[in-house]
# Entry
Amino acid sequence: MQKGSLFVVSAPAGCGKDTILNELLKKTDKAGYAVSATTRAPREGEVNGVHYHFLTREEFERRIAEKEVLEYTEYCGNYYGTLRKSVNDLLNEGKDAILKIEVEGAMNIKKLFPEACLVFILPPSWEVLEKRLRDRGTETEDKIVERTKQAHNEVKFAKNYDYLIVNDELENAVSDLLAVMRAEKLRRARNDELLAQFN
Amino acid sequence: MQKGSLFVVSAPAGCGKDTILNELLKKTDKAGYAVSATTRAPREGEVNGVHYHFLTREEFERRIAEKEVLEYTEYCGNYYGTLRKSVNDLLNEGKDAILKIEVEGAMNIKKLFPEACLVFILPPSWEVLEKRLRDRGTETEDKIVERTKQAHNEVKFAKNYDYLIVNDELENAVSDLLAVMRAEKLRRARNDELLAQFN
# Structure
């Protein structure tokens, strides 16, 4: 059994990252989310271990100290991070682990796991992204300006990613990501053991 | 329009390379063979410009001298090679060009076009390959031994390729190659222009 691979997917808000990943996971049983951990309170409908691993602040800090947290960030007074165990459990089952994290976390993961494959999802254009954020109808104008500015900052990191996927049509973007995940497993660099069988 | 990319596909005899590529080309209109040139006589049913560009020895040598031949080899007294024009015509149409060539030609193409993507097709095992060669029923025992030996030499080059595909089930191998071709187009290194639109 080939061990699972680690895929990191990042995108600015409004690029449809969650929708793409949810559709993708319907189409393959060979991959799963590495569920993030957080100290914020669960929102209605959120299930521990599915949407997040909900931890107390003390528990999160203990895990940081014990190097069980691969990367983390503090946002609005709460910790958000990736537990080493969440990733390893998937990989050891032979599944690909998908980490849905923001750009700085992604850079940290790449340092820890140089073999991780980083995928950045882009909007078709800035105009479309702004329109999508506006069409949600849930954000104030200030918030839209802030999110757009943040998106510009995040896209600056895209040059450090391995693949770029434009989310123009959802179905295409899902197929793109499936192709990336399938192709990555075939890269020579990931198949030393296979080649060794022929020598 | 994104320019086409160059894919080189190599495999030892009996690995099903031709079948995979023929099936693949039924499933996509975004790629085509870069037809090889040769000085050998056409066999029955072979069409000039489809199976090969059939050239006289003088014509082939003139094209070598004029640097119109990207790579070539001499085998049993005949030249076999790839014309620069065959590749460029496809790329300029926005299609991916597939070169079906042996390992040394592939290494030469990689030197000329570092961005070329090299795919090596492997048999499931040496045993299966020998069985396939034997089951053809068209080869003498000497020829089978020779081809197996040649296959061992060719597989030594596989470590220099970008992707390895095992042809166990034809349909899987075709899907693998389609995924590789789709994913390669999404690599960040091939999308500087796309990223530039966001800066």
The two ends of chain B are 19 Å apart (CA to CA). The helical segments of chain B are 17-27, 57-65, 84-92, 103-112, 126-136, 141-155, 170-186, 192-196.
